[in-house]
Amino acid sequence: MPINQVEPRQAHETLGTNPDAVYLDVRTEQEFAQGHPAGAINIPVVFIKGPGQMEPNSNFLAVVEKVLPRSKKLVVGCLSGGRSQRACEMLEQAGYADLTNVRGGFGGARDASGQVVVTGWRDAGLPVSQDLGDASYQSLRKKAGV
Prior knowledge:
The chain has five helices and eleven strands; from the N terminus they run βαβαββββαβαββββα. The chain is of the alpha/beta class. The protein has a five-stranded parallel sheet, with helices on both faces.
């Protein structure tokens, strides 16, 4: 089953019309803390170890599986749409079926010349929060017992 692809405005509409849907932000904890879609939860798919160096989060699936049932509709986003697409593929392999990747993510997708080709959540003027609370990776990891 192909993974749905939507832009941020459509993702916001989906979340508004389906109160059971969850926005899963797979960016790093630092990126999430600087601002994220209101109501999102954070489970990083990778950790950044240095400029251009990413390390997979070996606990990604374990935490997701403990806090989100496979029947849940997941709207998955990152900064521009690449990491979230990879996360969707991993989740699909783990048995999640109702997956939507947010093309353009939080910060927008750019072409090779740096021009924005898909406006991100933040620049589309959609609701942004810096509140962490129970949505933080630390909190979710603790809840999952990982």
